[in-house]
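Form 7-S
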Amino acid sequence: MNQYDVAVIGSGPGGYVAAIRCAQLGMKTAIIEKYDTLGGTCLNVGCIPSKALLDSSHHYEDAIKHFETHGIDIPGEVKVNLKQMIARKQDVVDQNTKGIEFLMGKNKIEVYHGLGSFKDATHINIDKDGKTETIEAKNTIIATGSKPSTLPFIKLDKERIITSTEALKLKEVPKHMIVIGGGVIGLELGQVYKRLGAEVTVVEFMDRIIPGMDGALSKELMKVLKKQKVKFNLSHKVKSVERKGDEVIIKADNKKGEEVTFTGDYCLVSVGRRPYTDGLNAEAAGVKLDDRGRVEVNDHLQTSVSNIYAIGDVVKGAMLAHKAEEEGTMVAEILAGQKPHIDYNLIPGVVYTWPEVAAVGKTEKELKEAGVDYKVGQFSMRALGRARASMDLDGFVKIIADKNTDEVLGVHMIGARCADLIAEGVTAMEFRASAEDIARMSHAHPTYAEAVKEAALDATANRALHA
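Output:
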């Protein structure tokens, strides 16, 4: 029987990063992956493939809407080759998963393919093609991630009534895609197919889209997506989804209690994700799950069993790849006797629509509920020379600072390249910067980042220079 200092169950961003860090710290490490490729949801059917399709569809939209303005004439009709677009997406996925394989080899991490399940607290069975192999691990890190959620009455046929997984490999552009859920995944994939020619209707239970983010971002993103002809039905409670041939019929009650019917040829069910522990046999090791199916952990991500830890989507907190990576690193360093720390308030959130939406820290609503006195600075992307040059005029940067100390408490932005710009906010807040600190920093001109400086100036003394 092979013995290891650490076994990691699951090879998504949290799992493979945990394994690498454990190996770097001198531990004999194994990683167990149920599927044939490494990388988990993020690399195979999540973050990476969705961004590949977002980029491809963005290029197409630019070609048909903006190239002529830029002085680029294309003879003939620009057409979508969906088969090639999906093939390029898969090539990007393959490159990334092979990269993870390389990193496992480089760090001398032993890879097992098969379903990992606990035999007891120190032994893990790996089932593959009817055969079982057992390994022994002094410590184990559960990193089994999450799967798309659905509603109890929805039968996913994975052909017309689909999740994000199937939406990444459609063989045709839908005529009318109905998206149930106005969160990150639904909006990103909805925008992909809207660009490619589909009619897109979003049906959302809450009274706004991206409900976990600052209200100003929700309002601005919906305004922009409406300009792009995406239709929204907020405060609608879906109660049935049925397929009849190539047609999908969705019935919902609006906020007045009236029944509304939506008809399309595809329905993307995007109502969040659930922690995935199927087949883990956690109870055999004594590991406890909470009432939402998450693995219970303490502040050190240690489960109810002292030598077993859990990270990422399978534990409490935001279901984000970079949050899982930080947790994987933290557990590895704890096992090595170090004292790492994660500030969960400084884990940024991003929506990769165009314009991009990004945020870190507290929202206005959270600060009001906590009774904190705050001030707000805001600056429009439209006022930037760089934004005019690229024709990316939508959006703004909003900085919230403590009214008394000027410490930055939250940064919220929507616009071009905000997924990258938010790192400036994270860095500032990590070092407890004030709005004035950011305002006094030199920002290159012309850049989108100038909006961050201007918002900080606005928060400091209502003295934005270009407003």
